[in-house]
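Notes to self after the Tuesday call (sharing in case useful).
The group wants a holo model before anyone commits to mutagenesis around the pocket. I volunteered. Ligand is adenosine-5'-triphosphate. Logging inputs and output together so the record is complete.
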Amino acid sequence: MMKEATTFPSDRTPAVEAAAAGQESSRFAIEVAGLARSFGETTVLDGVDLRLESGGVFGLLGPNGAGKTTTVRILTGVLRADRASCLRVLGHDLPDEIASVRPHIGVQTDTALYDRLTGLDNLTFFGRLYGMSSADATRAAHALLDRFGLGDRQAHRVGTYSKGMKQKALIARALIADPELVFLDEPTAGLDPEAAHELMMYIHDLSIEQGRTFFITSHRLEEMESICTKVGVLSRGRIAAQGAPAEVARMLVPDVRIRITVAPPTVLDQSAVLALEGVRTVTPVESGAMVELTTRQAVPAVVRAIAAMPGDLLGIAEEPPTLEEAYLRLVHTQERVHTQEGAAVGGAR
Amino acid sequence: MKGGTIWTIAAKDLRESTATGQVLAPVAIVPFVFVVLYPVGLLLALRSMSPADAHDLVSKIPTSAFPGTGELTVQGQAAYISTVYLFAGFFLIIPTMVAVVLAANSFAGEKERHTLEGVLYTPVTDTALVVGKIVGAALPAVVISWVCFGVYTTLVNILGNPLVGHWYFPTLNWWVLMVLLVPAVSVFVTACVVWVSARVSSYQSANSIAGFAVLPLILLVVGQATGVMLLGPGFFAVLGLVLVVVDVVMMRWIITTFDRERVVASFL
Ligand SMILES: Nc1ncnc2c1ncn2[C@@H]1O[C@H](COP(=O)(O)OP(=O)(O)OP(=O)(O)O)[C@@H](O)[C@H]1O
Ligand SMILES: [Mg+2]
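Result:
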């Protein structure tokens, strides 16, 4: 999707720019505390707390309808919060100082481009809305469309683009004015796997090399795990867990999983391993077995016991939990808790 | 800077509405009927009518009420009264139609097509957005009306002058109509539609609400316009200025009550 050798329209980094302008540059790109929002009877956000340092990639995860898009809309000032003890973006309080925030953010949500205009016209129009000169906007639009592999279609009406092409153009549009903070709401929806991967790499580069901050929502947990410096799981109106992806995964999945490699693999007596204290499951894998333990304390005894069994123990490695496992576990637990609460309330009546 | 943004928004709307014939075609056909078929039909009929038939026709009109018709033949009177007074109302209906269609398309249509939300994230001010949208619809309404006026003037001078006996069109009233009232009415109508559009979710409903609400108002103005024209260009100009004041007040009010949340939330 991104062609080599094309550089991002600007080589100034937002951080350098801010310093040059003598602005007070806040350490946090986003600070939110106690954010709540309902639509009619439905409480969507109920006390969201979030702090994002500048320059990272934040991934907001959560099931459908959890309120991710609503959160993005509130942070970008098109929806109001019902209440929030702190709601600050790029150092400015919302909603009062939203006008100071808008020039520095780029947003891609579930919106559309102008089908009747060309890709180039669409991007140039947005550049102009950010106050860029016509020449600058056109130059930036060319560079971005090239970067997203749409260079040869830029003079065609967007109505003729495929779904994935429209999505790329939307993301390009969010980047047109060189934003310091970029909100991408499910940016990889509709992209083919290769394009999705390249987009993730591009985001990674933009954040590492140019210090931009990204706020991304996505359902593709593997992708999020690979590029996010921080993730948060939105569930039942709150951020149920936040931190680096590995941290969140370890926090939510307390069990330890170790991969045992033995030779020959067939010699391992699985039922004997399963009978050991602290072992929850044993799953055969090609070279041996994957053993899940309920606590870390059980590790030494289990390893010693396996070592004493027939066959040669070639390796023991801890297999860290993935973000996806952690996420699924969290969401399920929350659902179970909710159902029980519901049942308890129902029973008390 | 703000002027630039207003123009950017207006120009984008113009480009979008001219990009396909779908939006402009219907609004171009009706004016054609108004400014070409009706006057040409009437003037040609008058030319071929016998003086007696023409007399019957004119006798139903209180010609003495219309200044400038005293010394004319009956055919001349009929031609003068219809082209100078009766058809004037068309030139308020034309900008109204064009403005309703374009404004509904640009504001409610953008909400419906989910393109407006993207604009709301940008640094565009409410003022620039609202004024840009109004200009983008009112400007073509005015331009189309002026083109129609050019065509109409040509036809009236070719077909009407022989009947009246001298060059008589456009009168001063018509200059007031074209320079003051047409722009004022275009802005008024566009502002009404934008106000409605910010509160409903689809192009269709904006169009029909605007149709129900705006057309009777305009017909009222049209009805009065002929009457006010009789009072002379001075009074007519006052009517135009009153409308300009109403426009300014309305625009300010739309801008102060403009709410991005309502635009975003009402199409979900
Ligand atoms: N304008 C609105 N009016 C009424 N309800 C709304 C509105 N906007 C959002 N909601 C409700 O708020 C909840 C959260 O919606 P939101 O779009 O934020 O979810 P999400 O986390 O982005 O979901 P998804 O993963 O499907 O994109 C949903 O129940 C939705 O129906
Ligand atoms: Mg969403």
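Two things stood out.
Residues 2-265 of chain B form one domain.
The mean pLDDT of chain B is 84.
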